[in-house]
Write a structure and sequence with these properties.
Length: 318
C-alpha cells in the first residue's frame, strides 16, 4: 500500500506494509438499530407502542432466546426481522441485508407459533411441497428430505397424513420445512407451545443439534428451564422494551454472597472446621469460590413481574 504525505511543497511517496487485520469483519446474523413499531388505535386516537427502539446484535452460530410476557414485543420483533411488517422507525439487517430482500429471505427459515399445513399431505409430501416453493428440486430435494426426516425423528410418521400428527410431531415437521432450503438463520416462535414434556425435550435437542451444525437460532419461549438449557444469550422484554440482555453465565450470577465448591468429600469433623475457619480446616482438594447462581425463572420474575401490572403503554397520536 502506498500513502502520499504533503510536507510543505514536497510530496513524499512512502510505501507502507499493512498487516492483515485478524478482526472478524463478517456481518452479524441479526442487527437492529432503534427498531420501533407503533400501531394506531383509531377508536382512542392513540398509538400502541408494540416495540420501542430495540437494539440487537446476534452473532452467527449463536442460540438467542427472546423472553417476556404476552404482548411484550417478542412476536413483533420476529415479524419485523422477517420483513412481514414494516418498522415505524429504525432499521434491521439480516447478514447485512434488508429483511425483506430476496437474498436475506433465502438465508432464513421460520417456524410460526401455530403453523398451518395441508392436513391431507403426509410428512414426505409436505417437505416436497415446501422444498419446491423454495426452489429445491430433483435428487437434491430427495436427499434433503431424507436428511431432515432423520434429523427431526419422523421416520415412523413420514407416510402418515398430517391430520393424524400430534402437536409435537407437527412442530417437528414444521422445523423440517423451515430447514428444507438449508438456511443459515432460523426464527422459531414458541416452538414448544402446547407440546408435551417428551416432545419439548426432543425439540430442545434439535435446537442443540442445529447449533452444532453452525446454524443461528433465534427463538421465543415461555419455558424458562428449556431456554436456560439451550440459549447462549437471552433478552427479556417488557411492555415493548428490551429491559435486560446478556449471556446466561453473566445474568444468572448472584450479586451477593459467596459459593464454595470443594472437589473432595468432607467428614463431619472437616465440615465443622470449615465452618470455623477455612484457613485452618486442612481440607484437601481444590476449593473454588463463585457467585451463587439464580435460576432463569428467578431472573425473569425479578425483571418482569413488577412491570406487568402497569397499564398498556400508549402514546398520543401527533
Amino acid at each position: 500500500m502506498t500513502k502520499v504525505f504533503l510536507i510543505g511543497k514536497t510530496v513524499a511517496m512512502i510505501k507502507v506494509r499493512v498487516m492483515e487485520s485478524s478482526v472478524d469483519t463478517s456481518p452479524l446474523a441479526v442487527q437492529t438499530m432503534g427498531l420501533t413499531k407503533r400501531y394506531p388505535l383509531a377508536w382512542k386516537r392513540k398509538l400502541l407502542v408494540a416495540l420501542d427502539h430495540l437494539d440487537l446484535q446476534i452473532r452467527p452460530g449463536e442460540v438467542y432466546g427472546l423472553l417476556g410476557p404476552n404482548g411484550s414485543g417478542k412476536s413483533t420483533t420476529l415479524k419485523l426481522l422477517l420483513g412481514l411488517v414494516l418498522p415505524t422507525e429504525g432499521e434491521a439487517h439480516i447478514f447485512g441485508l434488508p429483511p425483506d430482500s430476496l437474498e436475506a429471505r433465502r438465508r432464513v427459515g421460520f417456524l410460526p407459533e401455530n403453523p398451518y399445513f395441508y392436513a391431507f399431505l403426509n410428512g414426505d409430501e409436505t417437505l416436497r411441497f415446501y422444498g419446491k416453493l423454495c426452489g429445491v428440486t430433483g435428487s437434491k430435494l430427495d436427499k434433503r428430505i431424507e436428511e431432515l426426516i432423520e434429523l427431526v425423528g419422523l421416520q415412523n410418521g413420514r407416510e402418515r397424513p398430517l391430520r393424524s400428527y400430534s402437536k409435537g410431531m407437527l412442530q417437528r415437521i414444521g422445523l423440517a420445512q423451515a430447514l428444507i432450503h438449508d438456511p443459515d438463520l432460523l426464527f422459531l416462535d414458541e416452538p414448544t407451545a402446547g407440546v408435551d414434556p417428551l416432545g419439548s425435550s426432543q425439540i430442545r435437542d434439535l435446537i442443540l443439534r442445529l447449533k452444532k451444525m453452525g446454524k443461528t437460532v433465534v427463538f421465543s419461549s415461555h419455558l424458562l428451564e428449556q431456554v436456560q438449557e439451550v440459549a447462549d444469550r437471552v433478552a427479556i422484554f417488557s411492555l415493548g422494551k428490551k429491559v435486560l440482555e446478556g449471556s446466561l453465565d453473566t445474568l444468572l450470577a448472584g450479586e451477593q454472597g459467596t459459593q464454595i465448591e470443594i472437589s473432595s468429600d468432607l467428614t463431619p469433623e472437616q465440615r465443622e472446621k470449615v465452618r470455623q475457619s477455612l484457613t485452618q480446616a486442612g481440607v484437601g482438594g481444590d476449593v473454588r469460590f463463585s457467585r451463587p447462581r439464580l435460576s432463569l425463572e428467578q431472573l425473569y420474575l425479578q425483571t418482569v413481574q413488577p412491570k406487568t401490572a402497569a397499564p398498556a403503554q400508549e402514546t398520543s397520536r401527533p
